[in-house]
């Protein structure tokens, strides 16, 4: 009896210990990690959740792990019973993964959360379905389309924002007000124009301008100068609401510890079903309009070009056109979503940095007025064509520096067993390219070049920042270089160099951000026209936090402006 009890106890202890060993994280050999985490079934998850629940900044937590382990490559254990996540804090190797390494593809870290919204480019692996979607949209980032249609649409949307902010600035009487919704609306209207043109009769800002213009100033509570004035928001069209709710769903999934379960639950809700029904109804109507436009030779909008391209592809391959299918509708919806959240987040940081750096703002305004003297003489704003050609170096530098200073982590997934800095990386491992740590906001960590991949060794070494200057500071001049303008006289001029140092905000390579050219156009126009029309005054300390929320983008928690009309 005693022997039986001992045997059973030993057996149970062995089983429990084996179960414990199965539960605890399994590190990838050779890659640094937090030793304590490998003794806990949940690994680093609880530490991460504890910090992110306070800061809402997952990217910041990643950068801290790199600092703690003091290594350009390390691993963390966040998803229980899954492979570790690899954190890569080396720009050259991150760039190599995105540009040249076919062993890596877009990861499911964010795209998995977007999948219930439809199967558009951002959610797809690099396969034939993705290539077909790229063919549908290949005309939309060409200089012809951007300069003749998309750019003027962005200019028009920013013009509406200027009108709105002039009204709000007068009503606010020197007090601050939130800019977050306004910047979200200008991005929304730009994407709606880009996708549907005038065929879609609704806009976010038009209703808001009407609402604010009709306000009785006496109904506004001015209050303490350290508090923001709250303006009412006008209701918008159901499709516009659907696009906003769509990005909200993705944010919830990305910020969830159990993203797939979160999105599964969301898809069962009546609200989600209403969003999808609205999406499909409006897009069917817009495709029908575009089909008529193509048949009469009037191809202008994004959907017009997509329908035209699909008709040509169908003829080429001897099949029926697919513009009536769900995949095509999903791709159209992807266009209206693309950049909506990320661009508005970037615009928010731009206006914050301008207010906090009055010297930068004054210099930018002075240089713009000098460059566009005819506009000053005629007492008007620069036109789109003037802002677009030639581009202004300091304007480019201000935008690029704002992007650098709010960068977000880019992920890739190993689609086969491979190596990274001399370490074995199993298939299915997600690699987080950390762009808010060493090499970006602080001096780079040393890397043994012999450990780099063959493609990385063969490529030209990317430029690094001047590490004698504070990399965490907002300093647009780091993007400017002196170039000879006259060899005989030795005269030089400042030029913008987009490769001055590490930058990963849009990713890189075939899976880099599809809409980056449009995003740059929108950011340049908004930065130039707002500085031309307003003085961004420093907001009160209570409204000027740099706290942020990480999800699809790195979005400022507080985005307020205090404006003085010029």
TrEMBL record:
The keyword Membrane applies. Its cofactor is heme. The chain crosses the membrane at residues 6-25. Heme binds at residue 513. The keyword Coiled coil does not apply. Pfam families: p450 (PF00067). Gene3D superfamilies: Cytochrome P450. GO terms for molecular function: heme binding; iron ion binding; monooxygenase activity; oxidoreductase activity, acting on paired donors, with incorporation or reduction of molecular oxygen. Keywords: Heme, Iron, Membrane, Metal-binding, Monooxygenase, Oxidoreductase, Transmembrane, Transmembrane helix. PANTHER family: CYTOCHROME P450, P450, PUTATIVE (EUROFUNG)-RELATED. Belongs to the cytochrome P450 family. This is Cytochrome p450 monooxygenase.
């Amino acid at each position: 009896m005693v022997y039986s009890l001992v045997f059973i106890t030993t057996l149970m202890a062995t089983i429990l210990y084996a179960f414990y060993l199965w539960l605890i994280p399994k590190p990838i050999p050779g890659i640094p990690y937090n030793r304590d985490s490998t003794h806990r079934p949940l690994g680093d998850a609880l530490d991460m959740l504890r910090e992110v629940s306070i800061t809402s900044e997952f990217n910041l937590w990643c950068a801290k792990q790199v600092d703690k382990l003091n290594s350009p490559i390390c691993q963390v254990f966040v998803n229980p019973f899954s492979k570790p996540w690899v954190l890569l804090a080396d720009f050259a190797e991150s760039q190599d993964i995105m540009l040249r390494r076919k062993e890596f593809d877009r990861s499911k870290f964010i795209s998995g959360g977007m999948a219930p919204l439809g199967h558009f480019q951002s959610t797809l692996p690099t396969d034939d379905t993705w290539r077909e979607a790229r063919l549908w949209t290949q005309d939309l980032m060409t200089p012809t389309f951007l300069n003749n249609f998309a750019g003027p649409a962005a200019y028009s949307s920013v013009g509406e924002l200027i009108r709105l902010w002039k009204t709000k600035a007068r009503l606010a009487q020197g007090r601050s007000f939130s800019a977050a919704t306004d910047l979200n609306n200008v991005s929304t209207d730009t994407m709606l124009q880009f996708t549907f043109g005038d065929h879609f009769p609704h806009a976010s800002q038009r209703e808001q301008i009407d609402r604010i213009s009709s306000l009785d100033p006496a109904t506004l509570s001015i209050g303490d100068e350290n508090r923001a004035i709250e303006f009412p928001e006008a209701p918008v069209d159901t499709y516009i609401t659907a696009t906003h709710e769509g990005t909200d769903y993705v944010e919830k999934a990305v910020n969830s510890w159990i993203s797939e379960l979160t999105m599964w639950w969301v898809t069962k809700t009546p609200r989600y079903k209403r969003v999808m029904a609205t999406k499909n109804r409006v897009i069917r109507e817009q495709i029908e309009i575009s089909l008529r436009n193509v048949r009469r030779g009037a191809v202008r909008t994004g959907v017009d070009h997509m329908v035209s391209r699909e008709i040509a592809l169908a003829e080429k391959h001897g099949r029926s056109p697919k513009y009536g299918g769900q995949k095509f509708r999903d791709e159209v919806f992807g266009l209206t979503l693309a950049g909506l959240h990320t661009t508005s987040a970037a615009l928010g940081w731009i206006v914050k940095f301008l207010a906090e750096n009055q010297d930068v703002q004054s210099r930018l305004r002075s240089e713009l007025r000098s460059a566009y003297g005819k506009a000053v003489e005629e007492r008007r704003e620069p036109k789109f064509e003037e802002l677009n050609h030639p581009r202004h170096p300091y304007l480019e530098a201000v935008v690029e520096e704002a992007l650098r200073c709010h960068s977000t982590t880019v992920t890739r997934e190993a689609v086969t067993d491979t190596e990274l800095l001399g370490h074995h990386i199993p298939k299915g491992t997600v690699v987080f390219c950390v762009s808010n740590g060493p090499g970006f906001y602080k001096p780079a960590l040393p890397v043994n070049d012999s450990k780099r991949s063959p493609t990385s060794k063969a490529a030209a070494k990317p430029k690094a920042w001047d590490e004698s200057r504070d990399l965490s500071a907002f300093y647009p001049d780091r993007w400017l270089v002196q170039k000879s303008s006259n060899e005989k006289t030795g005269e030089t001029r400042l030029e913008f160099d987009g490769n001055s140092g590490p930058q990963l905000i849009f990713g890189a390579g075939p899976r880099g951000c599809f809409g980056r050219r449009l995003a740059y156009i929108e950011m340049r126009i908004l930065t130039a026209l707002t500085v031309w029309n307003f003085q961004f005054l420093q907001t009160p300390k209570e409204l000027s936090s740099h706290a942020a929320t990480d999800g699809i983008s790195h979005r400022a928690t507080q985005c307020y402006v205090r404006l003085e009309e010029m």
